[in-house]
Amino acid sequence: MFGTDYPCVVLAGGMGTRMQPSVPNVPKSLIPVRGRPFIEWQLEWLVAQGVRDVILGIGHLGGDIRRHVGNGESFGLQAAYVDEGDSLKGTAGALRLAVDELGIATPFYVLYGDSLLDVSIADVTSTYQEVGLPALMTVFRNERRWEESNAVFDGRLVTRYEKRLATPPSDMVYVDYGFLIIDSPVIDEFVPAGEVADLADVLGRLSTSGRLAGFEASRRFFEIGSPEGLVALEEYLATKRDQSQ
Predict the structure, then answer these.
(1) Regarding beta strands 53-58 and 115-116, do their DSSP bridges make them parallel or antiparallel, or are they unpaired?
(2) pLDDT at 1
(3) I need a labelling partner for 181 at 20 to 30 A (CA). Which of 9, 57, 127, 194 fits?
(4) Helix, strand, coil: what percent of the chain each, to 5?
(5) How many domains are there within the chain?
(6) At CA 75, angle to CA 69 and CA 80, rounded to 5?
């Protein structure tokens, strides 16, 4: 159903707990960013990168997202949905729903629903295809600047990925950038149907078994998962607008 290009699953079902006090009853993907719902910035970026098939994994207030995006035609793409409702299955569980309900049988992109990135999807895809491993994680040399680093990257492979370490080791200077490529059999292998599962655990197991390729992004990421992140993103977009004028 998706042609020859990889579809992109946008994980947009989360509760957005840290943002609820400032924007109550608004799904995170629809939080206003410089006067536009955040999902519009994401979809605009994906279309500019050549992605035409998007699957939105929705849950909390997901109907609002579905009504806003519709079939995707107004954004220049084709949009489909998998809906977790109020029984969220976790990030990996949401991917399992997408694979099962939409019959994804190819590699696919994964974009976190609160991230706005600056990386070439074409370059990421070329690296994934050249390395020939079942999954790839984009990483950024974070060195604990914007959040806790969680990945060890040797220039080709992510050799360790772990999100919940109290004290990351000295060689863990990279962070998950928020964009992945996963071959669909990985989901069958690691994610039981109908169960709650965290994508971080799947990626951690892939990393320790030598099956997680890496691609280093050179520009920092932005996110709207926190009030501080939203402020930083709006400042970045304002600067970018001023530079283009």
Answers:
(1) unpaired
(2) 34
(3) 194
(4) 35, 25, 40
(5) 1
(6) 50
What is the rounded CA–CA span in Å between residue 191 and residue 93?
7
Q: Is residue 203 situated within a structural domain?
A: yes
Distance from C-alpha of 170 to C-alpha of 81, rounded to nearest angstrom: 41
- Sequence-distant (6+) residues with CB within 8 A of 193 are 96, 100
| Residues spanned by the domain of 132 | 8-244
Distance CA 121, CA 42 (A): 13
Tally of CB atoms within 10 A around 115: 22
Largest CA distance in the chain: 50
Token pair belonging to 111: 């974009």
CATH for 19 = 3.90.550.10
Count Cβ atoms within 10 A of the Cβ of residue 95 and give its class: 0-12 exposed, 13-18 middle, 19 or more buried: buried
pLDDT at 2: 36
Q: What is the pLDDT of residue 240?
A: 76
1 domain-assigned: no
CA torsion angle 100 103 107 112 (round to 10): -50
d(CA 109, CA 137): 10
What is the chain's alpha carbon radius of gyration, rounded to the nearest angstrom? Answer: 17
Please measure the distance between the N-terminal and C-terminal CA atoms of the chain and give it in whole angstroms.
40
The pLDDT averaged over each successive group of 10 residues in the chain (245 residues) is: 71 73 79 94 96 95 95 97 91 96 95 95 96 97 85 97 89 95 97 94 97 96 89 90 55
- CA dist 114 and 12 (Å) reads 8
Whether 179 maps to a domain, the answer reads yes
